[in-house]
């Protein structure tokens, strides 16, 4: 968990695990909360000061699954 002055969340969407692994490394390094995209709501995301998103690329762009 990050401190109260700058709450950081790392959110990821991963098909085969690579984006998940990088998201975990980043979250560990900056002491951020970590969520898979479908496990966090927009209201919860808005409670953070810094939002990091990671997803793999599959030809059409970054992998995102919206709500
Ligand atoms: C069908 C397919 C299409 C891909 N398209 C791209 C692409 O357009 N650009 C890119 O940089 N990587 C592309 N990749 C590579 C993946 O983004 C890369 O392997 C990524 O690490 C997979 O992440 P994941 O394990 O979290 O799903 C593609 C991979 C596959 C299998």
From TrEMBL:
Pfam families: Flavodoxin_5. Residues 8-67 form the Flavodoxin-like domain. This is Flavodoxin domain protein. GO terms for molecular function: FMN binding; oxidoreductase activity, acting on NAD(P)H. Gene3D superfamilies: 3.40.50.360. InterPro entries: Flavodoxin/NO_synth, Flavodoxin_dom, Flavoprotein-like_sf.
């Amino acid at each position: 968990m990050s401190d109260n002055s700058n709450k950081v969340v790392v959110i990821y969407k991963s098909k085969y695990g690579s984006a998940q692994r990088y998201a975990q490394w980043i979250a560990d390094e900056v002491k951020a909360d970590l969520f898979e995209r479908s496990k966090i709501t927009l209201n919860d995301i808005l409670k953070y000061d810094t939002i990091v998103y990671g997803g793999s690329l599959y030809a059409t762009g970054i992998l995102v699954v919206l709500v």
